[in-house]
Design a protein that fits this description.
A two-stranded antiparallel sheet has the order 1-2. It has one domain. The chain has 160 residues and is mainly α. It contains seven helices and two strands; from the N terminus they run αααβαααβα.
Amino acid sequence: MGKVIRNLGVFQALWFLVVIGGDAFAVFAFGWALYHWVSYSDTRERLLLPIYAAIGLIFDGALTAVGVLTFSSNTTLLPIWLIALWSVFPTTLNHGLKWCWSGPVWVLIASALGAALTYVGGARLGDLSFPYGDLTTTIILTISWVGYFTLIRYLSSAKS
């Protein structure tokens, strides 16, 4: 249980640091992701971490391209701080967030309450905004995250 708390605690601390501090603090998240990647003894998980991050970046990139998410930098490119968060988030999937894999109800709860609402929090603290409004964007994010969790669950259970 201690490792789970540490995993989620470090992720949450990095989330706040990067969302509030922006690109200047992204190096801390990248450093933690690299530490995790190097220290994993599970070769399969080490292989999947960058794939999970890339899928997340594609999801957020698509949401940005269609105008669901916008950044104060007024660019269609994802900011460095968001790329940094996506480098760290996959380190929680088989550790702090392992409970998500207990069934589809937990995936929905994690998607709606955990994932989508972190974007709402991020919008209040950082340079993220929702042109479609909070409710519509939260629904879109929840659906996107159900898709994300479903896809990575499939990838993690696929035989190599």
